[in-house]
Amino acid sequence: MRPLFDPLTMGYDWEMAVLKEAMESAGDDEIIRLSDRIRNALPWSRVGVDLDLLEARLGTVKRWEELVEKNTEYMEVARRLAAKKKYIVLPIGARPTEEMPIGSHIHVGTCTEFARAMALKNRMFRFVPVFVAIAANSPVYRFRSGEYKSYRIFTNAEWCSRPQQAFHPRFSRGSWGEDTTVKAWWNNTIELRCCDSASDVNLMCELTVLAAGVMHALSNNLYVEAIECDGEDFYWSAINRWKAAKYGLQAKLTWDGQEKPVSEIARSMIDIAEEGMSILGAKKSDLILIRKMLKKRQTQADFLIALQKSDPNPDRLLRAIANVYEKDHDAFKKYLDMAPTLPALKPLSMEEFLLSKITKEVPAFQLAIHTPLVPYDFDRLIEKLEDEGKIRVEKDEIWGRTMTRL
Q1: pLDDT, tens digit, for every residue of 134-145?
Q2: N or C: which end of the chain has fewer CB within 10 A?
């Protein structure tokens, strides 16, 4: 059977804020003008605008060296041109006070067979939580902080990166906006949408080639005549996604029936990605930042949490983050060099989490949006809590089911 990816290529849509000196967005019109100037300076660039964000697009890349070179050149040019208008280009997972969260969307191609691409998507759901943990970079979001290292994923990127569904490859038409989204008909790619926007140029490169390597490894012997999806794995992948958003690289995931540190799982994921990375001219040793992050269980979110301790005020925090990254583009790398190794944390159970959200007469739909579970598994857990006498479930003609904690 011919390869799904022919040839294996990579690229991304890397979103980033463009800020005025007062830390408000430069606005759509100014960001469009900036993207036009970048295109003029870099004819190969396909940079554009998404909402009020600058979106870096390198086009199709076939080699690791090309990815690093273009990525570095793009950021240098974008920052230089923005500085002429006294703007700051800031890749970050979320702004502390306003607007939607910000993501890094990785594209792996060249892929034109939709059904087989959907079969690969069904295999990716296990690995999405690992990418969520590594890429966590939104520990502050709309004046909220302290509960999650990726508020972006906890909120499903406000419906722009939703938990995956399992699709029958042969009968599927696809669905936009899930953590892994098949775009084989219009972009010739499979898109990984679950990564927070990376604040470090090198980390963005590493995440991109790693995603390509993983998808290449999963692309062998794809089966389109049935849904290749184990119910138990699907259930735990949803909970693992929530754990990764909450704890980052300190998370312990349920993997093959056992609880394992996500840092350990990520090392195994890198091993399976090695062949695909090699096709693109990259080696495991090129994942310098990711390997150090796994060793210390530190993420970009932990760096921002450290900055937040010096001044928790959300408005001033954004300025502090912008100042740090504007003055030193290697700030995260230097933080990582001196940061301590964090412990793996015992996770809160989904039962404990749901109980913490149930007060008095909470509508089921309001509770459901807090959980990563599909409706079937959500209903089973609610029934369990009711049978154990921990909650009371009532029916309302307008609100449907409501839950009260006992």
Answers
A1: 999 999 998 888
A2: N
